[in-house]
């Protein structure tokens, strides 16, 4: 039976010829870059969720929930003087959302809701009207509506079952945008394109592609390179900015990325880039397994000897060393590298150790990223 890593390498081995043949893949500009003025803006708010079936905050352990409840009822004209609320059907929550670019008043967006107190579940609750503010303290949206929770929790006298997270959920289209962003797209004098994966080679090719298009459409170059991430496009006088962006984002560019090996030691995931190369090295991998077994025996005293029952320790130690292999690795391309690693037949933790050793030996011609 193949190990999980052997299966992973087999999949890479099938995909390796495609990766090698398309080392520099072709992509549209809209897929590799984003407009600087078209970024999201984060919003945050504090609110209350009502209608819970006894899974809300304990008002004694979460005093801010009771304070918020009293303030909300007073704003609605209901006096709460001298009364105590013992209900468990309300919970204090933090509401977050991302305001999309160029959002106009009246449009809707999703919001995320997370419990702040000791509520056990938000399932079945309804978010009460909550103001969402930006980093400048201004209110840009108002959220309200029923919460959708994917997780659940069930418990009895002697057992409890929990799946997913029941104290967080979403309100689809639960926020209405009330105020537009100060800046407008039409007010811009140029377009600033930001690469999602900064790289000088890709930025230069994107600049050349835009200038090649503008030479035919507008009679001159309009794009310039700032650094490995930013490309600035000057707006021609006779061009419409929105139409210009629509034409530029569909231009194709041959992308390039640095060689990287990404290793996640917690999950045992290894991702090898198509341009990773390894100089010729010899690798030996073998594991030593030591098994210690304790088999204590009870020793009884002789009859009428006035002795005491004792426990005599007994320890068995077995040392085993698996058959280690010596393999010569040389990776002029991804297919050869994967075949060499697969020939050793070790588990993910062993492959991670081998890659770290190859990097320390100076034979890995790539960046090793440990997560």
Short description:
Helix 1 runs antiparallel to helix 6.
Protein architecture, described:
- The protein has 371 residues and is α+β, with helices and mostly antiparallel strands.
- The chain folds into 3 domains: 4-22 and 260-370, no CATH class; 41-177, no CATH class; 184-254, Alpha-Beta Plaits (2-Layer Sandwich).
- The protein has 7 helices and 24 strands.
- A hairpin with a 4-residue loop joins strand 15 and strand 16.
- Helix 1 (4-21) runs antiparallel to helix 6.
- The protein starts with a helix and ends with a strand.
Ends apart, CA distance between termini? 29 Å
Mind describing the biggest β-sheet?
Answer: 6 strands, antiparallel, barrel
Number of domains: 3
Query: Can you list the strand order of the major beta sheet?
Result: 3-4-5-10-7-6
Strand content: 35-45%
Portion of residues within helices: 10-25%
Total DSSP E strands: 24
Structural class: alpha+beta
Poorly predicted regions are 1-23
**Count of helices?**
7
Mean pLDDT: 79
What is the radius of gyration computed over CA atoms, rounded to a whole number of angstroms? 32 Å
The general outline is flat
List strands and helices in order, with pairings.
Elements: H1 4-21, E1 26-28, H2 29-32, E2 33-35, E3 41-50, H3 63-75, E4 90-99, E5 108-115, E6 126-133, E7 139-146, E8 152-155, E9 160-163, E10 168-177, E11 190-195, H4 200-217, E12 223-225, E13 230-234, H5 241-248, E14 252-254, E15 260-264, E16 269-272, E17 277-285, E18 288-294, E19 297-299, E20 310-312, E21 315-321, E22 325-331, H6 334-344, H7 348-360, E23 364-365, E24 367-370
Parallel strand pairs: 15-24
Antiparallel strand pairs: 1-14, 2-11, 3-4, 3-6, 4-5, 5-10, 6-7, 7-10, 8-9, 11-13, 12-13, 15-16, 17-22, 17-23, 18-21, 19-20
Helix pairs in contact: 1-6
